[in-house]
Amino acid sequence: MSDAPRLEFDPIERAGEIWSKRIGDPTSMRFATSIMRVQQLISSELDAVLKPLGITFARFEVLVLLSFSATGQLPLSKIGERLMVHPTSVTNAMDRLESQGLVRRVADEKDRRRTFAELTPEGRRVMAEATAAINAIDFAVPGMTPEQQDQAYELLRHLRAAAGDFA
What we know:
By secondary structure, the protein is mostly helical. About 60% of the residues lie in helices and about 10% in strands.
């Protein structure tokens, strides 16, 4: 994944050993730190594969979400809700995607306070290319079988539920 030189030891394991001597049980620290490092690795790889298409993973998520919609459009508020991000993040992503011609804002004819995001034909093309590129690298999670990925997903789902991500 990374081009950085490989260490001859696992720094998180080493930190865990020191943690246990100086602070206490390292279990939660090692787990949380590992999640943060894996997030860095995955984000870096996904953004690298999407860079030639001019989008980030966050913008890819918007494109995919819009493609999942039965009508090809969603209210901006629903995008933030479904992607679990702040409205400002949606606005920033929409500004970039719109300037690239990948989405357009459409006023709701029934409620002038609401704006929809809609995929453009170019947005559909980029989304399809991006999906193929991400699938080609297995979403940047090499080294794990599908069964291991399912197990990890279920474990992390418990954390998300406990944090109130969903009912």
